[in-house]
Amino acid sequence: MKIELAKSYGFCYGVKRAIEIAEKNPKSATFGPLIHNKDEINRLKVNHNVGLVENIEDALTHDTIIIRTHGITKERLKTLKKEGKKVINATCPYVTTPQNIVENMSKKGYTIVIFGDKNHPEIQGVSSYATDPERTHIVLDANDLIGLPLGSKVAVVAQTTRKPEAYQKIVASLVVRAAELRVFNTICNATFENQDAAAELAQKADVMIIIGGKNSSNTKQLHSICKKYLDNCYHIENESEIDASWFKNKSLCGISAGASTPDWIIDNVIKRVKEVSK
Amino acid sequence: MKIELAKSYGFCYGVKRAIEIAEKNPKSATFGPLIHNKDEINRLKVNHNVGLVENIEDALTHDTIIIRTHGITKERLKTLKKEGKKVINATCPYVTTPQNIVENMSKKGYTIVIFGDKNHPEIQGVSSYATDPERTHIVLDANDLIGLPLGSKVAVVAQTTRKPEAYQKIVASLVVRAAELRVFNTICNATFENQDAAAELAQKADVMIIIGGKNSSNTKQLHSICKKYLDNCYHIENESEIDASWFKNKSLCGISAGASTPDWIIDNVIKRVKEVSK
């Protein structure tokens, strides 16, 4: 059985970087889970003594706090520093960018429009950098902009994981509402790169394995994309679910993984596929 | 016969302003016709001794040159000044704005995209303010952008008379091509205001008269908009075409005029309608 990994899969650049930072800082705690994968959180605890706190009160019981890729609000960061904590910032650089843009544009008097989910930690962090909350609007589509007082100068950023097509619609609706509109393309391609690479591989593979949490929406998305190209497509969480029958009379097994799947789980899957397909 | 003028008609702000400037400057010449109306050009010549030149060579035979609403290229302006001419700038302020934007953004390293017709004098003027012609692109739709090297920072302006919907499409296509996009809404509403006002009046009038050159596209547009609401709708160039039969058993005559129609022609039409409809 030949095994081939998709050209892009699993952790994005920001998550890889955050985990490397965590591994180098034992006795610290991350503010919120670094990724949506309990096995990986557990590995960081057991192998590297990196804990996890979920709120400011718990954070204050640790000396060193790691900020995860989503970032945190400006106020929380201030509190941590005021309390004398050592803060290690693992905010994804692709998230630091919109934080800085929102702060700068807000200071320059632009009304801020943020395309994203107001309940998502990334957006709570990004929007906290606006200097004038009353002139900062978080929207999910162009309809949310109807009736909002925008003024003549508007700056717009997007949550890193949003779809470009939806961003284009929001921007188009803003063109006729502002004398000057500054559009920052803060959407990250990582999600789409994994999807494109999985689709490419599915077109030549005889069987595809997609690894990731059963509740992970980006993993489910990868699975449904591959399903378009071949029936023999399996969504698993780890190697224990692998069935030898999947590889009967097949020659190429393609593998991809969701954005929260660590490499060591992928390695275990590869090892197991090799064993059962001998 | 009751006569009612549309709430907005005829000359736009920029043209009215340019004509007032011309009337105050006898012995001058305009660089290109101030408006597309021979009667008005002739009136300026006869009543105010304002001439007309069509090229740099002819311009150099006059002491005072009036720049029309469209503006002129930076190079021509420089030549006129170098030759010691007194230059009176009647460029429409709505055109000066994109000229300044293109110059500033170009100096700041932005690639310039101009939505407009490269053969139109306004766009020739606006684009001449770019400091790097190789990084300045004039496009009529999003397809014209395909394959163009744009770089990460793009600034975009529009010809004042373009349709907002078409501008939105161009901007939408640029959102995903640049890290930072600066969109300046330089479209002027004057054309649309005349159209909206004519449509409103046509809905209550019994007969509509639209005054303007038979070849004037914006006058023809006004006429076709009014035709949607009533059949008794006439496109005339001046009062000589008015027929008394149009007003038989009618009570309200609505009047609008194209963007190149001077008020004195409109006044003559009103006078004639009153006479024949007594």
Would you kindly provide a written description of the structure presented here, covering whatever features stand out?
Two copies of one chain form a homodimer. In chain A, α6 links the parallel β6 and β7. The termini of chain A are close together. With 278 residues, chain A is an alpha/beta fold. Chain A has a four-stranded parallel beta sheet, sandwiched between helices. The first copy, chain A, has a four-stranded parallel beta sheet with strand order 3-2-4-5, with helices on both faces. Chain A has ten helices and twelve strands. Chain A is flat and about 65 Å long. At the A-B interface, α7 and β9 of A face α7 and β9 of B.
Helix and strand topology:
The structure is a homodimer of 278-residue chains.
Chain A: E1 2-5, H1 13-23, E2 29-31, H2 38-48, E3 51-53, H3 56-59, E4 64-67, H4 74-82, E5 86-89, H5 93-107, E6 111-115, H6 121-127, E7 136-139, E8 153-158, H7 164-175, E9 180-184, H8 190-202, E10 207-211, H9 217-227, E11 233-236, E12 252-257, H10 263-276
Parallel strand pairs in A: 1-12, 2-3, 2-4, 4-5, 6-7, 6-8, 8-9, 10-11, 10-12
Total DSSP helices of chain A: 10
Secondary-structure element string of chain A: EHEHEHEHEHEHEEHEHEHEEH
In order across it, which strands form the biggest sheet of chain A?
1-12-10-11
What's the rounded overall pLDDT mean of chain A? 95
Report the oligomer: homodimer
Terminal Cα span of chain A: 7 Å
Q: What's the overall geometry of chain A?
A: flat
Query: What is the gyration radius of chain A calculated from CA atoms?
Result: 21 Å
Number of beta strands of chain A? 12
The main β sheet of chain A shows up as: 4 strands, parallel
